[in-house]
Write a structure and sequence with these properties.
The chain is an all-alpha fold and 325 residues long. It contains 13 helices and no strands. It is globular and about 55 Å long. It starts with a helix and ends in a 9-residue tail after the last helix.
């Protein structure tokens, strides 16, 4: 692991610990423990059900492939991003490898991952725009809120430009795609001819790409509902619109800090800052953040152990033509 990732992770962990003690260790953990084992099981079950929507948004890009390929790939992708000390990009690569292991040809596994990430990002832009509108409507009208809203709006505009540029590169920038591939993809795929052929095959059906985007937007809203359930389970009297605002902006900040492993500290800081603006105590925001961390670990560790066992089995087996070494 590179030194900068270790340093970023340590800084993020330090920030998270500081926030918990600053807000009040007893208050945060007392709120988190209100959920109980039954409530925690509900959070896990809801998160597992949400994977079906996320898998569907990926599957629609690759007609004819079974849903289980994408369900497994998405579960591994998110587990790696939330549990392993990698940036989000590392999770994308691992998720594509997992889909390849389940039978999706390697070029299509990685190309469809790139398009799926793109449609998810574009859906997130819509989601964040909704969050900014709700923040402007519901938060106290003061200089801090005005500055925060303006900053988020500028960030949203920048994200929109980046998203359009990323889409253009996939469609027209073969040499840029090749350079990008050489940095993050396995050697056998790190050249433009392999990757762009698969990308072209996906983009030949813009309707499927559009459906993927819509399903991702459904997934984002469903994710906010899951967080609203968490708030209700710990006794917070908060409506869904406020949680949509909080959750969309928390994930906007997480995305902006994509290089920080597991968004350590970033997620906690975002909840602690945004929750009070929408009528929720910072201790409740931090409690929900910790519950989500615990949920992700409870789901992610078994998935990653199974994935590692499957990778080990493949490494010992004779190489198949469509698989990576």
């Amino acid at each position: 692991m590179k030194l900068r990732f270790i340093l970023l992770a340590l800084l993020g962990l330090g920030l998270a610990v500081y926030l918990v003690f600053y807000v009040g260790f007893a208050a945060v953990f007392s709120a988190a423990l209100e959920v109980g084992w039954g409530g925690f099981a509900i959070l896990i079950a809801y998160a597992l059900a949400l994977f079906v929507v996320l898998a569907g948004s990926w599957q629609v890009l690759v007609p004819g492939a079974g849903i289980t390929i994408f369900l497994w790939g998405r579960m591994v992708r998110d587990s790696a991003a939330e549990v392993l000390p990698f940036s989000q990009v590392g999770g994308f690569v691992i998720g594509a490898r997992a889909a390849n292991l389940k039978g999706l040809p390697a070029p299509m596994a990685f190309a469809s991952t790139i398009v799926d990430v793109t449609t998810e990002m574009m859906a997130q832009i819509v989601y964040v725009a909704l969050g900014i509108a709700l923040l402007a409507e519901r938060a106290p009208q003061n200089s801090f809120t005005a500055t925060l809203t303006a900053t988020l709006t500028i960030g949203l505009a920048a994200a929109t430009i980046i998203g359009i540029a990323f889409l253009f590169v996939q469609r027209r920038g073969s040499w840029i795609t090749a350079k990008f591939a050489s940095h993050i993809l396995p050697t056998k795929l790190a050249h433009a001819a392999t990757l762009t052929t698969a990308l072209d095959a996906i983009y030949r059906s813009p309707v499927r790409v559009g459906v993927s985007l819509v399903l991702h937007l459904v997934g984002w809203i469903a994710s906010a509902i899951g967080t609203w359930i968490a708030f209700r389970l710990i006794g917070a009297d908060v409506d869904l619109a406020a949680v949509v605002a909080i959750e969309s902006l928390v994930y906007a900040m997480r995305s902006a800090a994509f290089i920080v492993p597991n968004a350590l500290g970033v997620q906690e800081g975002a909840y602690a800052m945004l929750a009070p603006l929408l009528g929720v105590g910072p201790e409740l925001g931090l409690a929900v953040s910790l519950l989500k961390r615990a949920r992700d670990i409870a789901i992610g560790v078994p998935i990653l152990l199974l994935w590692q066992a499957m990778e080990g089995k493949r490494a010992l087996a004779p190489k198949a033509g469509g698989e990576l070494s």
